[in-house]
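The protein record passed on for reference:
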Amino acid sequence: VQVVESGGGLVQPGGSLTLSCAASGSMLRTHAMNWYRQSPGKQRDLVAGGDGRFTISRDNAKNTVYLQMNNLKPEDTAVYYCHVLATSSDQPVARYYWGQGIQVTVSS
């Protein structure tokens, strides 16, 4: 199973960004897809609502999850990781997979 994030980059404070995470594999079934983030020197945390600024959505047909982030703040700067619970023909027992992570930098 491969998990690939995209859509990161540099954005100014108050701006918006949408991250995408696509999972692929033979006979893939995704059971859960979540976002985590990790800032330098901090632990990796589950991304929640961001005080109403973040929206997570899924396209089950594409095994893809999105993270729409609005009104971004400098403290949102982090590496964002996709976390997927899935089964596949190579791995019939459900297990978690991490993406490689993608950098989001909020700065003027």
Observations:
- The chain has a mean pLDDT of 95.
